[in-house]
Amino acid sequence: VTEPTCTAGGYTTHTCQRCADTYRSDERPALGHDYRDGICTRCKETDPSTESAVIASGWSGDLTWVLTDNGIITFSGSGNMKNYTYKSQMPWYEYRDQIKAVVLEDGVRTIGNYAFYNCTKLESIVLPASLRTITEVSINVQTPTGTYAEMQSNLFEGCVSLRSVDLSNCKELEILPTKMFTGCSGLETLLLPENL
User: Fold this and answer.
1) Nearest Cα to Cα of residue 158 among 117, 196, 126, 114
2) If we measure between CA atoms, which residue out of 117, 128, 121 comes closest to residue 173?
3) What is the 3-state secondary structure (H, E, C) of 2-70?
4) Residues of the chain scoring pLDDT < 70
5) How many angstroms separate the CA atoms of 196 and 111, rounded?
6) d(Cα 122, Cα 119) in Å, to the nearest integer?
7) Taking the model in full, what pTM does it have?
8) What are phi and psi of 98, to 5 degrees?
């Protein structure tokens, strides 16, 4: 049995025991892509219609960031995002009203102070399994596993358009501060890891 994929149909192959001839039956059409936030949920292919022009890009600590004209800011690399001591110091702050989605690719280990402060158009965030720390200067908690889980208590403050946050892959996170989503009046979905 060959299962259908996004681009190829599925079928059952039958082989004759005597002559080894084969034929197909139970043919099923290709499933087609199921794009969500520009990525197919089945095969992980990027939606070609969402390929966009780069508005701005740069570095933040160990990571590179790219903001495209579809409103997606993507952080990639291996390591930590820079901590900012004031909200306007983050290099993408001048574009905050254009940011609709944040994608942190696998390898990103921390989110820095004030990272998404007042991003009023932010609707969704995709966080990787590699994420260990969401920072804030004043909160520093050692977890039972011996790692430090630092949480930004006002990380998404003022993100009134934020509808969805997926923390389900963040197995190292053990505490969510009570003010993490202050002013996020549009928040509809918050997915947490099993350990929270």
Assistant:
1) 117
2) 128
3) ECCCCCCCEEEEEECCCCCCEEEEEEECCCCCCEECCEECCCCCECHHHCCCEEEEEEECCEEEEEECC
4) 49-51, 86-88, 132-155, 172-175, 177-178
5) 19
6) 6
7) 0.59
8) -100, -10
